[in-house]
Write a structure and sequence with these properties.
With 67 residues, the chain is mainly β. It has one helix and three strands.
Length: 67
């Protein structure tokens, strides 16, 4: 069984983006021509990079209620 090597986080980068949709999502609470995503990059000192994303319908609803 190979030994497990520990990884050391060097940096975490988080970006919020809004992706335009070809066709808006239309719901009872409104129309959404864009969809928000949060992009996450985790870089280690060992050179490994992990990437992920989050999307949330709740964010759209909050933005719509504020607007």
């Amino acid at each position: 069984m190979p030994s497990q090597q520990k990884l050391t986080i060097e940096s975490i980068e988080v970006r919020a983006v809004s992706v335009p949709l070809c066709r808006p999502i239309v719901a009872k609470i409104g129309a959404f021509p864009e969809w928000p995503f949060i992009l996450i990059d985790v870089k280690t000192k060992e050179g490994i990079i992990g990437r992920s994303y989050l999307e949330s319908r709740g964010f759209c609803e909050v933005a719509w209620h504020r607007g």
